[in-house]
């Protein structure tokens, strides 16, 4: 019999709808039930593409005896962290404070008032490596609840009080300047390994998308050769490694080195947000350098998103799972992507298989598990027959298409679709791919039609065109506004500027606190034990700095002092954190580069898609905004009173609506914009 998750919009929750555990969604009724029964709440947080979430579910949540014990002694609540990032953030903060680490699946035991008192992540079905079994944890928590209730209450009250009392240093009134950005660059350079191209000495490597954007913008503003060298080195390391799918395009979540002498292997899930951010980064790298490999990676990543993540309604799904069926009936991590020499020979024949083995680093011993290898490119200057390599890739991709595919999380997340809209719109404009611009526009239409509704308050998620129950958080407003503004620049359609304005007005009204600080949830959202607030990046730009960037761009388009003041107020935290921990506030540093440069405002009185418009879009100055089309100012205030000169298309480059002399010459415009 299906439990209460059967009608959820989250694919992750639906995966648990047939568990014998009597799951509840996060809702007041669950906590009311815990009060009536006088039992604690067990909160389990995960996401669809999480490998260890699936392991815990198979080992424990599908086990009848374990489920019966859970149902008898707890009210069990299942949360998709991608639907409820606020719940995830608040309780993950508690987990990390208590244990010094965190991750998913996240397991939290709390009182019926939502106050946490015991934490963990994955628990095995039997004691292992010093870890208690999940059943032992359940029994220990139940024993404490029934026989030491006063002690449990004291612990829960203390943890909740400590969380509520935490104060964030949001930087005060100061703005980041040349000194802070230079120090941030120096700190990053100390963490950069030019031999490998990676940041940091850890064995696990995540794509530092926001940091690369800062490096590219810093180079554009200062001509720093070191910044560009690091950006190129990191991008080359990522795209030649197994982080990048060498056959189908797109990036996996991260890579790790399992032994000191082993190759980097990926965690195979593919996330929309990683691919949207990296598509845009590689497009911007091409814009800065003309690099053909960067162009190839940007387009292959864009094509991957459209081919494998686009939904029937025109939005983009959240993720592809890491696991898939291996041909023998087992669900195995990476099965869809790895190859043995024998499999290469079966598809390619002996001669081409030998070429592919050398080209992609496939060995008899294997670089992954059970003799299989993950495809990666050699980082050498050895010449390769490009036509032969392309033919081999095409044949292997066709063969891989016959394998069982990884599962897809079809949930449409507003923020991540905003990132995808920006990436596809710009990539389409740079590389003359109008189909990508069309896909970006269709995704934006979905967000307006389904996620915004009639009141410009964003819903966090939808599935199959049906809006989820969860309110949008700050990153949704910031990233969707960013996507709309990029689409406005590319299409010349001012309606996207107007929609961005609606969303940013909500940010000003409902997400902004004293001294320019921002909160991750609206002031009228559900109240948790703490109102979440975090200016640092995770896998995506922090909502705080995403909103700051969109506010700054909107001010540049419209001349709004209120929006610029809000952007500046939010950037004080970058002054405080940027020099010390730049890898955790990369998007804030990128926005600060735009602020120091103006940002520049480019008004093109002339046809959308014309030479001057394309030149403006290819300008390298950080955070520049572009308005193209008619000169009446009805679509864009930036175009008001800026006519064509002698009937010819004309460009105006401005700061704070004060413009240089107009030009009708594309080469002169390129020089003005760092080309």
Low-confidence stretches: none
- State which percent range the strand residues make up: 5-15%
Strand order of the largest sheet: 1-3-2-4-5
Number of helices: 25
Helix- and strand-based class?
alpha+beta
Count of strand segments: 20
Helix content: 40-55%
Distance between the termini: 63 Å
What is the general shape?
Answer: globular
Nearest-integer average pLDDT:
94
Radius of gyration: 26 Å
Largest sheet: 5 strands, mixed
For this structure, the quaternary state is single chain
What does the model show?
- By secondary structure, this protein is an alpha+beta fold.
- The protein contains 25 helices and 20 strands.
- The strands form six sheets. It has a five-stranded mixed β-sheet, with helices on both faces.
Question: Topology, pairings included?
Answer:
Layout: H1 11-14, E1 23-24, H2 28-37, E2 41-46, H3 51-61, H4 64-73, E3 75-80, H5 85-99, E4 106-110, E5 116-120, H6 134-147, H7 149-164, H8 178-190, E6 204-205, H9 209-222, H10 225-240, E7 254-257, E8 264-267, E9 270-271, H11 272-289, H12 292-309, E10 319-320, E11 323-325, E12 331-333, H13 341-348, H14 350-360, H15 386-400, E13 408-409, E14 412-413, H16 414-430, H17 434-452, E15 461-463, E16 466-467, H18 474-491, H19 495-511, H20 543-558, H21 561-570, H22 572-577, H23 586-597, E17 601-605, H24 611-617, E18 625-629, E19 650-655, E20 658-659, H25 666-672
Parallel strand pairs: 1-3, 2-3, 17-18
Antiparallel strand pairs: 2-4, 4-5, 6-7, 7-8, 9-10, 10-13, 11-12, 14-15, 15-16, 17-19, 19-20
Helix pairs in contact: 9-10, 9-11, 9-23, 11-12, 11-16, 12-16, 13-14, 16-17, 16-18, 17-18, 18-19, 18-20, 19-20, 20-21, 20-23, 24-25
């Amino acid at each position: 019999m299906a439990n209460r998750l059967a009608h959820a919009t989250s694919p992750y929750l639906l995966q648990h709808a047939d568990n014998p555990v009597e799951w509840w969604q996060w809702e007041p009724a669950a906590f009311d039930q815990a009060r009536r029964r006088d039992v604690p709440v067990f909160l389990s947080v995960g996401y669809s593409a999480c490998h260890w979430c699936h392991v815990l579910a198979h080992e424990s949540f599908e086990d009848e005896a374990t489920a019966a014990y859970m149902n008898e002694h707890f009210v069990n609540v299942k949360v998709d962290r991608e639907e409820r990032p606020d719940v995830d953030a608040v309780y993950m903060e508690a987990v990390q404070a208590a244990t010094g680490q965190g991750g998913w699946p996240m397991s939290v035991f709390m009182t019926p008032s939502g106050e946490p008192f015991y934490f963990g992540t994955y628990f095995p079905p039997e004691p292992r490596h010093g870890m208690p079994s999940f059943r032992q944890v359940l029994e220990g928590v139940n024993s404490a609840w029934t026989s030491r209730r006063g002690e449990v209450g004291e612990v829960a009250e203390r943890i909740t009080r400590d969380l509520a009392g935490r104060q964030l240093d949001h930087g005060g009134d100061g703005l980041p300047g040349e000194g802070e950005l230079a120090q941030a660059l120096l700190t990053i350079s100390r963490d950069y390994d030019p031999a490998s191209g990676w940041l940091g000495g850890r064995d696990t490597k995540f794509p530092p998308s926001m940091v690369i954007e800062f490096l590219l913008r810093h180079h554009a503003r200062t001509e720093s050769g070191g910044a560009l060298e690091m950006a190129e080195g990191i991008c080359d390391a990522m795209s030649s490694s197994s982080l990048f799918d060498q056959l189908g395009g797109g990036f996996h979540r991260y890579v790790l080195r399992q032994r000191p002498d082993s190759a980097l292997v990926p965690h195979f899930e593919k996330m929309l947000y990683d691919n949207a951010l990296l598509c845009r980064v590689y497009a911007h790298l091409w814009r800065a350098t003309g690099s053909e490999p960067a162009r190839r990676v940007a387009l292959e990543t864009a094509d991957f998103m459209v081919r494998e993540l686009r939904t029937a309604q025109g939005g983009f799904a959240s993720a592809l799972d890491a696991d898939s069926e291996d041909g023998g009936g087992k669900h195995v991590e990476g099965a869809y992507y790895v190859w043995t020499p024998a499999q290469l020979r079966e598809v390619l024949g002996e001669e081409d298989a030998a070429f592919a083995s050398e080209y992609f680093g496939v060995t008899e011993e294997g670089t992954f598990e059970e003799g299989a290898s993950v495809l990666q490119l050699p980082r050498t200057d050895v010449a390769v027959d490009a036509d032969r390599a392309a033919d081999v890739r095409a044949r292997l991709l066709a063969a891989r298409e016959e394998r069982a595919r990884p599962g897809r999380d079809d949930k449409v997340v507003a923020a991540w679709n905003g990132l995808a809209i920006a990436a596809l719109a710009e990539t389409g404009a740079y590389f003359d791919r109008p189909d990508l611009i069309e896909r970006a526009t269709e995704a934006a239409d979905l967000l307006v039609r389904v996620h915004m509704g009639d009141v410009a308050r964003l819903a966090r998620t939808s599935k199959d065109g049906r809006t989820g129950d969860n309110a949008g958080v700050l990153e949704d407003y910031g990233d969707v506004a960013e996507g709309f503004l990029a689409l406005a620049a590319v299409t010349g359609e001012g309606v996207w500027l107007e929609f961005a304005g609606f969303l940013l007005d909500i940010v000003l009204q409902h997400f902004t606190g004293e001294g320019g600080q921002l909160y991750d949830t609206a002031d009228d959202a559900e109240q948790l034990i703490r109102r979440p607030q975090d200016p640092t990046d995770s896998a995506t730009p922090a909502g705080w700095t995403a909103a700051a960037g969109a506010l700054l761009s909107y001010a540049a388009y419209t001349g709004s002092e209120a929006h610029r003041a809000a952007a500046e107020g939010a950037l004080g935290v970058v002054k405080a954190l940027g020099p010390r921990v730049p890898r955790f506030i990369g998007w804030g540093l990128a926005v600060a580069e735009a602020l120091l440069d103006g940002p520049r405002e480019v008004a093109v009185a002339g046809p959308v898609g014309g030479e001057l418009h394309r030149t403006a879009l290819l300008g390298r100055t950080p955070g520049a905004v572009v308005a193209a089309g008619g000169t009446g100012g009805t679509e864009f205030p930036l175009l008001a009173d800026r006519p064509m000169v002698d009937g010819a298309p004309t460009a105006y480059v401005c700061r704070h609506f004060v413009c240089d002399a107009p030009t009708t010459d594309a080469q002169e415009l390129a020089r003005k914009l760092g080309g």
